[in-house]
Amino acid sequence: MRALNPSAPFTTFLPSTLSRGSKTQSLLCLSKSKSKSTVHFDFLASSSAAPFKSLAPLRYSVPACSSEDLSSPVHDSSAASVVSSSGKSLKNRLRDGETLYGLFLLSFSPTLAEIAGLAGYDFVLVDMEHGPGGITEALHCMRALAATRTPAILRLPETSPVWAKKALDLGPQGIMFPMIDSPKLAKKAVSYCRFPPAGIRGSAHTPPAGTRGAAHPVIRASKYGLDGDYVVNSERDLFIMCQVESAEAVKKVGVISAVDGVDCVMMGPLDLSADMGYLTDPAHPKVKEMMADAEEAVLGRIRSRGSGAYLGGFAVGNDDGLGPAEMRSRGYHMVCGAVDVGLFRDGVVRDVNKFKEAHKMSQ
């Protein structure tokens, strides 16, 4: 049996010897060689039996990390650049001409978020504007989505630097600003997502403990400071969406879509119809006409200049019978066709009605 090296950087002793009747169990020791990345298992003979309750505490030591170790990311990408199961980011997939299909998550249920990711949605939009949850609840959903490699987009309750800062620190792949009515407000939204001098985003920089290395943000988005490239890559990787939800905004949507840093203009047909005085009639001809004008302003700019924000929208309430497939054919790049609570509502209603109908037929 190989002798233990007490100076090894990693040595763990499992619980002490156990006495079972007249038999004595050995002590299992795991040690990691300093020169080789291998783990050795050693069984030490015990001279005396010990009761189960006298467990030896775990003993281990971890070598100190240098500032050089913390200056490079521990993974290939930061939290904000997590790629989907396809292996590409949202931006890259859109540049390749794909139309992405997503789900709105209003329940703030990590379980439903996980199911949505496993189902194959291209992205899931966690709605902090109309959903009951806030930052903490959104974090739980984001962790569930990350496990399925599904990009998470956070919709803020309002367009403000405080909400943007807290949301961005969680490390979403995208962020959506509501009620963007002018290019000026769109520029402000972008500035909330960028560190100075390009913007006004706050930071939580601190140097690694026991080192004199560069300071990194100690937030989830930067892997709590372990991703030294986060500050450089965050602006490149983050997907910024601006919602156009009023008649005034539609008049300026072409200019809004041209604002540097805005990646997608998300049309809000329900709020638009309400703003126009047709709260219960989003398919009113005047609403449909204004939606068509907005679509052309965004798509026309891309066709004529080869640049500008992508077009996103909701399948529900956009038009009579206009579903996700029809929206894709009209040029939409990001389509949301369902809401988690709506899917659950419809499913349970069908289930209950099915039982009631069967019960009637049996009488």
From TrEMBL:
HpcH/HpaI aldolase/citrate lyase domain mapped to chain residues: 101-345
Keywords assigned by UniProt, alphabetized: Lyase, Metal-binding
GO molecular function, one term: metal ion binding
GO terms under cellular component: cytoplasm
UniProt keyword Hydrolase present: no
Family: Belongs to the HpcH/HpaI aldolase family.
Name the record gives this protein: HpcH/HpaI aldolase/citrate lyase domain-containing protein
Lineage: Eukaryota, Viridiplantae, Streptophyta, Embryophyta, Tracheophyta
